[in-house]
Specification:
This protein has 103 residues and is an alpha/beta fold. It has helices spanning 11-14, 30-45, 60-66, 92-100; strands at 4-6, 19-25, 50-55, 73-78, 81-87. The chain has a single domain (4-101), classed as Glutaredoxin (3-Layer(aba) Sandwich), CATH 3.40.30. The relative contact order is 0.25. GO terms for molecular function: protein-disulfide reductase activity.
């Protein structure tokens, strides 16, 4: 499954059903660029999980509501409820375990 870009306008709808990982990122963020290919790989390996990207520069309303202070921040939603959060550029095995803990 390809990564989905989400915005202020569709955030609630995109995180409402199933297990959804939200990558809060920005173009200028080096660690965010390191995590991006890992998330792309996981989106193909874990087809039952929706992996999305929220550009905090272009979607400041949602980023502010979520209290995002550092990026990358990974938010894990299950049926519209935030169940976990991870901050920083984590290696692939840690991100995979982070997701699997809530499947």
């Amino acid at each position: 499954m390809a990564l989905t870009e989400i915005t202020d306008a569709n955030f609630k709808a995109e995180t409402a059903k199933g297990v959804v990982l939200v990558d809060c990122w920005a173009e200028w963020c080096g660690p965010c660029r390191m995590v991006a290919p890992v998330l792309d790989e996981l989106s193909h390996e874990m087809a039952d999980i929706k992996i999305t990207k929220l550009n905090v520069d272009f979607n400041q309303k949602t980023a502010q509501e979520l209290g995002i202070q550092s990026i990358p921040t990974l938010l894990l939603y299950k049926d519209g409820v935030l169940v976990d959060k991870a901050i920083g550029a984590l290696p692939k095995p840690q991100i995979k375990k982070f997701i699997e803990n809530h499947k």
